[in-house]
Amino acid sequence: MIEGCHVEGYAIVSVEGMIANAAGVMPDAIRNNADQRFLQSELNRAAVIVHGRHSSEGGPRAAQRKRIILTRKVPSLSDDPAHPHSVLWNPAGATLEAALSRLDVVEGLVAILGGTEVFDLFLPFYDAFHLTRALHAKIPAGRPVFSQVGPGKTPEDVLAGAGLKPGPRRDLDAAAAITLTTWTRAEARTAVP
Predict the structure, then answer these.
(1) DSSP 3-state assignment of 180?
(2) Which end of the chain has fewer beta carbons closer than 10 Å to its terminal beta carbon, N or C?
(3) Could you give the CA distance from residue 62 to residue 38 in angstroms, rounded to a whole number?
C-alpha cells in the first residue's frame, strides 16, 4: 500500500455498462456536460491521473496534470515524450509506487480513468469508484467498464463483488437521465500493484 494515497476510479457507462464503442471510441451518447463538470472538479484535486494509452480526460488543465499512462510498449517505466508531466508504465515491469515516485507523487488522490484493462487492474485497490450511468445511452457491442461486465453481470455487480458498497444515487443531469453513484470500500484495501 502507498501511504498517503487514495485510489478512486471514474467512469460513465451506457445502459449495458459500456465505456466505449467496439472501436474504443467514447460515443456522444454517453458524453454529458454535467458529468464532465463533476469529473473536472474531481481531477482538479488529483495528485496524479492513471489511464491507458487511448483514454484521456481533456479539459483546461489536462496538459498540466501529472499522469501515468499504462502501456506494454515499454519494459517498465519511461518518460512520455508526448506529455512533459507523464510517465509510461508497464505494471509487469515496475510497481505503481515506482511510477508515482518518478513523478514525485507521495500522497493524494490517484484518479483512475480507464480503459477496461486499467479499471480491471485497480479493481481490488479502489477506495472509491464513481460510477456515472447514462440511462438512455445504448452501446450494444461496446467495450465494458470491467471485463466481467456482460450478460447477467452489471458494473454494480462487479463493484459489489470487489467489496465496494454503493452510496446514494444522485442526479447529475435529470433531464438527460445521468446519475452518479459513488461506491466505497468499507474495509482496508490490499497493496496496490
Answers:
(1) strand
(2) N
(3) 15
Angle (nearest 5°) at CA 35 between 122 and 159: 30
**Which neighbouring-strand residues pair with 144?**
18
Largest CA distance in the chain: 47
| Cα–Cα dist 83/88, whole Å | 10
Q: Domain spans of the chain?
A: 5-185
Q: Among residues 99, 45, 97, which one has the least CA distance to residue 71?
A: 99
Cell 480526460 found at:
57
Say how many CA atoms lie within 13 Å of 133 toward its Cβ: 17
pLDDT at 180: 98
CATH, domain 5-185, list 3.40.47.10, 1.10.760.10, 3.30.565.10, 3.40.430.10: 3.40.430.10
pLDDT of residue 1: 45
Q: Which three cell numbers stand for residue 71?
A: 502501456
